[in-house]
Amino acid sequence: MTHILAGAPLPGPGATLDLTPPGVVVAVGAHPDDIEFHCGATLARWGTQGAVVHLVICTDGSKGTWDPSADTTEVARARRTESEEAARALGATGEVVLLGAVDGELAGAAPGLHDELVATLRRLAPDVVVGHDPWRRYRLHPDHRAAGFLTVDACVAARDPHFVAHLGSAHRPDWLLLFEADEPDHVEVATPEALSVKVDALLAHRSQWRSTMFIDDVGDDEGRGRFTDGVRDAARLVGSAVGRPAGESFRRLAL
Questions:
Q1: In which region does residue 215 sit, left (phi positive, over 0), alpha (psi from -120 to 50) or beta (all else)?
Q2: Which contiguous run of DSSP H or E holds residue 197?
Q3: 152, CA 20 to 30 Å: which among 12, 68, 160, 171?
Q4: DSSP code at position 229
């Protein structure tokens, strides 16, 4: 199983299942590929059900390499292109919004991005927002924590008309789903077709094959197979907790 998805808390037997398919979704991730890892199958399935799926990526991903001699400007450029390719693979028909904070420095940049995300949520008017759980214990990466708080804070501001009133009319999404949840209480069922789309979208992030997915190169069929099996195994583990073949887990909050 891929280390990105291993060890996550599982939902309990009382977890809710499957929101009514939304018309518009905004998913917010700290880095290119975070969204695909943690809710790619859910977004793929909603897309086939008619949802307009928008992706918001908070950082430029410029530090996403193990090569100490890498040109981080080129890494950021590659990851921007990969994000657009992954969105197409995912079937996301909405916008890919790049907030552009420097990878690893989101906590310092987040206050300046707050209004931009609020304005984006009001403009796109999602029924559901999906993002990182900022309260996940023992979290190592500060960008994930910062992205979670940025998303939660922007949802609250976007829904209330007297918060940053100059940024347009207030919009209240129905639900906020937090992935990487410390205490998941909701599962979206992952169909085999949606899981295949999730894998394809993840594999579009070619710069991350070696460092994140443990795939050596384009000829490493064994590595790609191992990675694909890991994604499917993680989904089956979530599904087994709620009596379904496969799923992705979240903390569900009403807005």
A1: beta
A2: helix 192-203
A3: 12
A4: H
Is 204 within the bounds of a domain? yes
Do the Cβ atoms of 118 and 154 come closer than 8 Å?
yes
| pLDDT tens, residue by residue, 169-203 | 999 999 999 999 999 999 999 999 999 999 999 99
Can you read off the two tokens belonging to residue 8?
């996550």
* Domain count of the fold of the chain: 1
Q: Is residue 211 part of a domain?
A: yes
Q: What is the pLDDT of residues 39-86, one digit of tens each?
A: 999 999 999 999 999 999 999 999 999 999 999 999 999 999 999 999
- Decide if 228 contacts 195 (C-beta within 8 A): no
CB-based burial label for 12 (10 Å; 0-12, 13-18, 19+): exposed
For residue 131, give the nearest of 56, 29, 55 by alpha carbon: 29
**CA distance to 25, 33, 69, 132, 183, per residue, from 214 (Å):** 30, 15, 20, 23, 28
